Input
Amino acid sequence: MASYFDEHDCEPGPPGPALLQLARTLFQGQELDLSSLDAADWDQRLPPPAARRVVRDLPAVCVTPAQAEKGLKCPVCLLEFEEDERAQKMPCEHLFHSACLLPWLGKTNSCPLCRHELPTDNPEYEEYKKDKVRRQQQEHRLQYLHGAMYT
Ligand SMILES: [Zn+2]
Ligand SMILES: [Zn+2]
Output
């Protein structure tokens, strides 16, 4: 039997190419056209910016010689980090130049690489997130009940 996590797909998905593309567009200073994403439902919208406090508290790290040796790149601008270069570390452990990451987090709250979400200052969105978790729990309970009755 497949594990719980396989079935419910709780692992972060593979890098979202569309999101990264957006991040690069931003990095290159082009105008972002987000109007197409501006639907009524958060499912269809780019989440709001990351909370300022959280962004301010993101740890700055020094790129280690081992990371530089491996050719670790900033996922936004694709430049390789140099040894001892300062990088901004997301909670998902991904490293970015702060000049690449900060404008992005000013637009939306998730890691451009893996979509790990940071808290936001938007009460409406935070409520939506809680709701989503509740809906998922509800679904799991229903699936569990269904499984208990029919197996
Ligand atoms: Zn960069
Ligand atoms: Zn990440």
The longest strand covers residues 86-89. The chain has a mean pLDDT of 85. Residues 122-151 form one domain. Helices lie at 4-8, 17-27, 52-56, 65-69, 98-105, 123-150.
